[in-house]
Write a structure and sequence with these properties.
The complex is a heterodimer.
Chain A lengths: L2 H14 L1 H39 L3 E5 L7 H7 L7 H10 L3 E16 L2 E10 L3 H4 L4 E4 L4 H5 L4 E4 L1 H7 L9 E4 L2 E9 L4 E2 L2 E2 L3 E5 H8 L6 E6 L5 H15 L11 E3 L1 H44 L1 H9 L4 H37 L8 H28 L2 H6 L4
Parallel strand pairs in A: 3-10, 5-7
Antiparallel strand pairs in A: 1-11, 1-12, 2-3, 2-6, 2-11, 4-7, 5-10, 6-7, 8-9
Chain B lengths: L11 H5 L6 E12 L2 E13 L4 E5 L6 H8 L7 E6 L2 E2 L5 H10 L1 E4 L11 H12 L3 H14 L15 H13 L5 E5 L7 H16 L4 E5 L2 H5 L3 E6 L2 E7 L2
Parallel strand pairs in B: 3-8, 3-9, 6-7, 7-8
Antiparallel strand pairs in B: 1-2, 1-4, 4-5, 9-10
Helix pairs in contact in B: 4-5, 4-6, 5-6, 6-7
Classes of the chains: A alpha+beta, B alpha/beta.
Chain lengths: ~400, ~250
């Protein structure tokens, strides 16, 4: 019997028992869908985060009291660290000669009010040069100026969400808003940035750093953002900044940094180690499911063999060899699981398109994972088809014929 | 697609022992082990069947007639003894070679028809040709010819469930004939049919025999056996009587 004939026979049999075939391949279908979808989404998130980080700029690094904290122990230790102060800022500004800009920022959240409208937003106290360090662009008006900083002026630059919510007319420059009971004049409006994972990035207000310290207390720790001319200069600038802060904090040679350094590469690395773990776990779990799907196929094939014993006997009587019968059953198992794989990939395709449509994550549908999923599902079908096919092939035609036929 | 190759390295010396007979058995024994007890289903059966004979094998149940038919049909191998079919020593062949013989030399007709329920009459008749490895067009042509031979030209696209019992058995007979076998083996071919339909099938057998086919019918019904031209009576695993009636 030729391969083509056994393929046609397998398809014919599967179509003859549509419901049973579908239920049999359901396990493979679901696991392949999960596998392809999860891997696609994780890859999409990696790509998305990488893009966002490059928007932040690969030429910028950040120094803060805490840095990146990934567990409770680090958190407890970080509590003992000294605050970063304006004096530290002045020292960095003078000493990090590899940098083009050294800016400072304090972050708070606060209630913004204008007339009857109010809105909770990020309140960020910044130095005037932050316009050159961060990536926000101004739509109208001006940024916080050196004079605003020196004289603790109560002026602010607002994000697009604040504009939309507090000034529905679309015109804010020159108008007032109040933060903690203090009145601020809007001097500029930023261009919309968009959102990351559903979090709007436009819900902020910038005020002079000095004003912010007055408003929220002088003892707040300050963060620094340092820009270099090109990414290659990052290590040199980082070394300079570390040396300055360690000296100022009187750290010994063997002491650890008592401040956090965050570079874009480090963020990406942390993120990818996180998503890599998710992806690996998902792959392991779904491969277990695929194997279970294979066991389901084997089980159903064995069950169907008992009711098709006479058929095997008849086929052998008219000239089927063991190889013919084995091929017939193997082909059926392989077709079932491959069909499950194909349907699973199709469903995953729809799923990832939906994710891409409803969220900013691109969820790319990559060929390699599709090929891998199809290869695994077909292989599983073939593997778990071997035993039932061998049982069928070994059936004694006389015994098989004695079971009731049609 | 090439036809399945003949698996036999021709062995002239062995074949000559068959003396040109279509079927020759020599002292066939078949012994089963039931627990520790040996059951002799056949105790030394020797018989010959020539081309174009119409033979009935008769005997009560348990006489060994089914065992004999399974051996002649190459579904089984004897414990002892030799069996030649069309010059080939079937008693010493392996599984695949026996499958080849069943495909080319033998056509089976079963009491329970054994048709594939989801396939059409034509599809059922094509089956032996599929295992022979013929291309689809040739299969179709031969299967149609076989169905015409049993007067089912207008039922080719019907499934077994859409056919009467007699028609189903005629499909099965067409399937047995389609590969132009040396011999057609029928095991109680009328057992599942009413007497009128049974008579119809026996008439068909008579005609097929007149047209040159060799037939071997296994039955316990005297009427069915009476249609043949020779009756071999089997009892207790041995040939009790071999009578030519016409």
């Amino acid at each position: 019997m030729s391969i083509g004939d056994s393929f046609r026979l397998a398809i014919h049999t599967l179509l003859a028992y549509k419901l049973r075939s579908f239920l049999t391949l359901l396990g493979i279908l679901i696991s392949v869908t999960t596998l392809v979808t999860v891997v696609s989404i994780v890859r999409g998130m990696d790509q998305f985060v990488a893009e966002r980080l490059s928007q932040l700029g690969t030429e910028v690094f950040v120094i803060s009291r805490f840095g990146m904290i990934t567990n409770a122990k680090q958190w407890a230790e970080a509590q003992k660290r000294p605050r970063l102060t304006l004096q530290d800022y002045q020292a960095l500004r003078r000493g990090v000669t590899q940098a083009t800009h050294v800016g400072a920022i304090v972050r708070e959240r606060g209630e913004l009010k204008h007339g009857r409208q109010s809105l909770r937003a990020a309140v960020r106290g910044v130095t005037a040069n932050m316009i050159d360090i961060r990536t926000e662009e101004l739509a109208t008006g001006r940024y916080i100026s050196e004079a605003d900083y020196r004289h603790r002026k109560q002026v602010c630059v607002i994000g697009a969400d604040v504009l939309k919510n507090l000034y529905p007319s679309g015109n804010a420059v020159g108008k007032l808003l109040s933060i903690r009971g203090q009145r601020f004049q809007v001097v500029g409006v930023a261009e919309p940035v968009g959102s990351i994972f559903g979090q709007s990035q436009d819900n902020f207000v910038y005020i002079p750093l000095t004003t912010a310290l007055k408003l929220y207390g002088q003892r707040r720790s300050i963060g620094f953002q340092i820009r270099v001319r090109e990414a290659a200069l990052l290590p040199a600038a980082t070394d300079q900044a570390r040396l300055i802060l360690r000296t100022r904090h009187h750290l010994g040679y063997f002491d650890k940094d008592d401040f956090g350094l965050i570079s874009p590469a480090a963020v990406l690395e942390l993120w990818q180690s996180l998503t890599g773990t998710i992806a690996r776990a998902a792959v392991v779990v779904t491969i277990i499911f695929v194997v279970m799907g294979g066991i389901v196929i084997m089980n159903i094939m064995l069950a169907s063999l008992t009711e098709r014993t006479w058929e095997v006997g008849m086929r052998k009587a008219v000239g089927a060899t063991r190889a013919d019968v084995r091929m017939q059953f193997l082909m059926e198992a392989a077709c079932l699981s491959t069909l499950g794989g194909v349907l699973g990939v199709a469903l995953a395709f729809a799923g990832t398109r939906l994710v891409a449509l409803l969220s900013p994550v691109p969820a790319p549908f990559s060929l390699d994972i599709v090929v891998a999923a199809l290869a695994v599902s077909s292989a599983v079908g073939l593997f778990f088809g071997i035993y039932p096919a061998d049982r069928a092939a070994r059936l004694d035609p006389i015994t098989a014929l004695r079971s009731e036929g049609c | 697609m090439a036809e399945t190759n003949n698996p036999f390295p021709e062995n002239a010396a062995r074949e000559s022992a068959a003396n040109g007979k279509l079927i020759q058995t020599e002292d066939l024994w078949k012994t089963y082990l039931m627990g520790s007890e040996e059951i002799h289903a056949l105790r030394g059966v020797s018989l010959e069947i020539e081309r174009n004979e119409y033979v009935a094998i008769m005997g009560p149940s348990g006489s060994g007639k089914s065992t004999l038919m399974n051996l002649i049909g190459c579904l089984d191998t004897p414990t002892r003894g030799s069996y030649w079919i069309n010059g080939k020593l079937a008693s010493e062949l392996d599984d695949d070679q026996l499958a080849y013989l069943r495909n080319r030399e033998i056509g089976f007709v079963f009491q329970t028809f054994n048709l594939l329920p989801r396939a059409t009459a034509l599809g059922n008749v094509e089956l032996p040709l599929v295992y022979r490895g013929l291309p689809a067009a040739e299969r179709r042509e031969k299967a149609q010819d076989a169905l015409r031979m049993v007067e089912l030209a207008d039922r080719m696209d019907h499934r077994p469930s859409e056919l009467s019992g007699g028609e189903r058995q005629r499909v099965a007979i067409a399937r047995a004939l389609v590969n132009s076998p040396s011999i057609v083996l029928a095991d109680e071919p009328t057992g599942n049919l009413d007497s009128a339909t049974g008579a119809e099938i026996m008439n068909l057998f008579n005609r097929l025999n007149r047209e040159g086919n060799t037939l071997l019918v296994v039955t316990h019904e005297r009427d069915v056996a009476a249609c043949a031209r020779r009756i071999i009576h089997i009892r207790d695993g041995m040939v009790e009587r071999d009578e030519r009636i016409r």
